[in-house]
# Entry
Amino acid sequence: MSVESIVKEQLDSMDMKEIEDLFELATSNGTVFGDTSHGEIVRSILKGDPIFSFQDIISTISNHFMQEIHGSILLGVQLVVVCIIIGLLKNLADSFSEDTVSNLGIIVCSCCVMVLCLKSFMDIYQICSNAVDTMTLTMQALLPILVPLLISMGGFASGGILNPFIITAITIFNSVLQRLIMPAIYIACIFILVNSLSEKDYVKKLALLIRGTAVTVMGLLVTLFSGLTIVQGLVTKTADGMLAKTAKYSVDNFVPIVGSFAADSLDLILSCAAIIKNGIGIFGLMIILTLLVIPMIKILAVALVFKISAVVIEPIGNKTISDCVNEVGNTVITLAIILFLVAMMFIIFLSIIIGIGGGSLWK
# Structure
């Protein structure tokens, strides 16, 4: 029986509907790697063909970024127009000494800036939250497929230890992220916007402290879980290698007559399992990267518009408003950093599972 037929038979017996549905969900707002499937990736690995084209990926990302910049320009124009009105009201107040009316107009315009910034931030916040949720669901759907394949290759220690450890890490991480870190950043943005109503800094430092603490906690969690997973992976991989070599030696030397043939057949089947595991793992990586890149393009495009708007607003409007828009842009960038850290942790998890095995256990 050929490798292709063994791989095809094993793929056909696997239920991949949930993973395929998640891939469709991840690519609903745009795709980076084009239309592909886990079967095509496995076939590409078997044939030694490239799985995707880096030139096409770079071109796709560039096109997406320019589209998002074009779609976000209206926000920048609205912010600049409102700030021009604030500047005119200030000049009128200085000329006619109508402080009460002009101050009321300035407050109204400042509230308009707050509404525009908050609406855009809430859209980005929702995009980031949805991407994190889908990444978590993807990991939870991949582990019940990858871990049994890993165990079937002889990775008993790796599968027995990494599976509960990674599931626990994902559960704790997602709970802390959705209940503490993301709401903290949202509150920090509200404080920054409220602070823009006055020329004095009442809660700005508190907002910056909350935002910085959230990012620090996020970085510590990613470092902790990723580091522990890497160490566990290295230790269990060594143990699995010893068990696998012992099993192969026993089959080869202690089974009469057909021992060598059985060991070679076992090698073939395990190599096929490794190919399937790696193909599905790469498919999962593509889902995670799509959930990272597409929202990241949107987030960075909006952040760039906020930053440029702050630069334009400063000489023509209120400096406090300019600082507020600039800090909202920084808060949007903070969401991009959090999304990046989440994706990196999940990519590390998948890379460790992909790296264990691949035939190395049996050599």
In short: The radius of gyration is 27 Å. Confidence is low (pLDDT under 50) at residues 358-363.
